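Researcher: I've got a protein sequence and the SMILES for nicotinamide-adenine-dinucleotide. Could you write out the 3D structure of the bound complex as structure tokens? I'd like something to compare against our soaking experiments later this week.
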Amino acid sequence: MLVVGAGQMGGGIAQVVAASGRRVSLHDPYPGAVERGLAAIEKSLKRLAEKGGADPENTMDRIEPAPHLVAADLMIEAITEDAGAKEDVFRRADEVLPAEAVLASNTSSIPITSLAAVTTRPDRVVGMHFFNPVPVLKLVEVIRGLETSDETAAAIVRLAEELGKVPAEARDFPGFVSNRILMPFLNEAAYALMEGVAEPEAIDRIATLGFAHPLGPLALADLIGLDTCVAIMEVLHEGFGDPKFAPCPLLRQYVQAGRLGRKSGRGFYEYA
Ligand SMILES: NC(=O)c1ccc[n+]([C@@H]2O[C@H](COP(=O)([O-])OP(=O)(O)OC[C@H]3O[C@@H](n4cnc5c(N)ncnc54)[C@H](O)[C@@H]3O)[C@@H](O)[C@H]2O)c1
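Model: Sure. Here is the predicted complex with nicotinamide-adenine-dinucleotide in place.
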């Protein structure tokens, strides 16, 4: 299997795939990205091993850095949420991977149908949307593009189950199901902060203690990445043409300032 993108999601996906006993190639062209991804995987595996739930050495041995796209029976793409960049990966993967291979995207919002359209195998292109942190959260949203075959969707459902995950199938509409519901919630929390309705801690406490969410919306946005949240909201906004999905100006401003959340050390909160 080939995972493209070694950020928080690509690393997590490579980790669960390798932990299931499969070999995985991990590709990311940015200098140091694969090394950082591998270090994060190792740290996560050690943490899980302390709880008796991982085999760090053998799992790491099954992950091989790939300096470029390589042949595999399945690609899972997990690069930055940018339609042009993803289309470029799908175009190149279509040339490199065998004709029968499945090309999957972990995109949060970009239409699977448009990624499929740049390939010669739209029936074998599918959404395989994991949740963050991948080794912990069970859900995989499986998204069928317009041309995705039953066989392809069934293979991804089966793989998700073999990885110990629980699949939920959705059709290819903006934000699918998960982010169509989640992003307006996170965005409204950002508006509440921007308008001075409450401090971040109070906004998050209302969700954790009032709604029994494990994380409040601002802490969750920081975990997802504020750049990723804005990119997803832009796809929702454009896809539905509905102003309710427009990203809150405060979110945009934080992204402009480089406050991307946990991954940059600061978002709504500061991280050591
Ligand atoms: N963050 C989340 O909570 C979350 C959850 C589900 C899905 N997703 C989706 O997963 C994808 C990745 O998100 P992330 O949070 O891991 O982002 P991230 O910023 O942590 O990582 C993105 C990685 O992609 C790499 N990259 C950029 N362009 C590339 C290219 N052309 N080829 C190969 N690698 C490239 C970057 O070097 C970086 O390592 C996005 O599509 C996002 O919407 C994110």
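Model: Residues 57 and 72 are 23 Å apart (CA to CA). DSSP finds eleven helices and eight strands in the chain.
Researcher: Great, I'll pass this along to the crystallography team.
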